[in-house]
Amino acid sequence: MGCAPVSGTRLCLVGLPGAGKTTFLAAFWAAVRDSSEVGSYKITRWPKDARYLQKIADEWFEGKVVERNPSSSMEPIELDVQSTAGTAFSLRVPDLSGEAFRDAAADRQIDPRVAALVAECELVLFFLSAATATVPISLADLAIDDEEEAEPDEEVADFDPDELETDVLNGELLQLLPALTPTPEAPPPMAVIVSAWDTVDRVGLTPTEWLDKEQPMFGQLLSEYRRNAPVAVIGISAQGADYDKDPTVARKPPAERPLVVTDHTRSTDITAPLAWFDDQLRDGHGG
Ligand SMILES: Nc1nc2c(ncn2[C@@H]2O[C@H](COP(=O)(O)OP(=O)(O)O)[C@@H](O)[C@H]2O)c(=O)[nH]1
Ligand SMILES: [Mg+2]
Q: What H or E segment, with its residue span, contains residue 41?
């Protein structure tokens, strides 16, 4: 677009397959291309190839589930974003690699290309989905309620990463991250995005409360991470709803569609995690 590349604070999206990364990016892109500004942010450098972003934003706009990108695509999406307050971010989305993160979590072996991207990042957006969150059966049994009886024959085989519970996998992934950075003792600030928040909003818990209750191991490990770096937990429905339950959501303008819930606020501003990072940078953390 003719803009000089801005070297902003590097921000990386991580999360298992199905964690909601692509949908978030689609909603963000749809909002920003619609009005050139979303929240108080604007794009200062377009990615080299915006076709993929345009495609997922089109799908999102029409109220369709965004298409999975093949795990073979390692090319990270990079775009620069600047806030009206002046902070520049360089978003890097290794949006390939839910699978790479899952393999990393299951085997503690991380693809070197993914490791390199994570190593460079100064801020982390860690995605996990409220819609598909699971805990080990033994823990689930303790908190059983009438509607959700555990099926005894749903007992899982231990070594298939597809079958491991998200609480365990996300816990492993969270524990791996600091070691990939140059300063494991001071890892990057992290915003945990609980995606598909529409599926649990009704329950009435804050995102932090939800995490502690529904993903207890992860919640515990997150409090350990928090000792060394600033952490926020944000519930985001990038779709605004489950399309099957509420297809009318696609009639809303892009900037009004998402649901974004922090422990204290509710809005439709999908840039809330960036605003939080802005605050951290101003407070002198993470860079
Ligand atoms: N109900 C609901 N489902 C969502 C939302 N965001 C994503 N999903 C669903 O979660 C699944 C995985 O999302 P995706 O963005 O592809 O995850 P990724 O693998 O991390 O990129 C898809 O079936 C989406 O439709 C949301 O805001 N609400
Ligand atoms: Mg994806």
A: strand 41-45
Tokens of 202: 């009704």
Q: Whose CA is closest to 181, among 12, 21, 7?
A: 12
Ligand 1 neighbour 14 (Cβ under 6 A): no
Residue 261 has pLDDT above 50, yes or no: yes
The atom number, within ligand 1, closest to the CA of 16 reads: 20
Residue 238 in contact with ligand 1 by CB distance below 6 A: yes
Q: To which H or E segment does residue 93 belong?
A: strand 88-93
Across the range 107-132, mean pLDDT stands at 85
Nearest CA among 119, 96, 82, 56 for reference residue 254? 56
Contact in structure between 71 and 97 (CB atoms under 8 Å) = yes
**How many whole angstroms separate alpha carbon 40 and alpha carbon 48?**
23
Ligand 1 nearest atom to the CA of residue 243, by list position? 1
Least confident piece of the model among 16-20, 176-180, 198-202, 280-284 = 280-284
- pLDDT of res. 157: 44
Q: Which domains does the chain have, with CATH numbers?
A: 9-282 (3.40.50.300)
Across the strands, what pairs with 123?
11
Residue with tokens 């990393």: 104
- Start-to-end CA distance of the chain, whole Å, equals 28
| Structure confidence by residue, pLDDT tens digits, 130-145 | 999 888 765 445 454 5
pTM of the shown model: 0.87
- DSSP character at residue 31: H
User: 66 C-alpha to center of ligand 2: Å?
Assistant: 8
Q: Would you state the structure tokens that stand for residue 169, as one six-digit string?
A: 């996998």
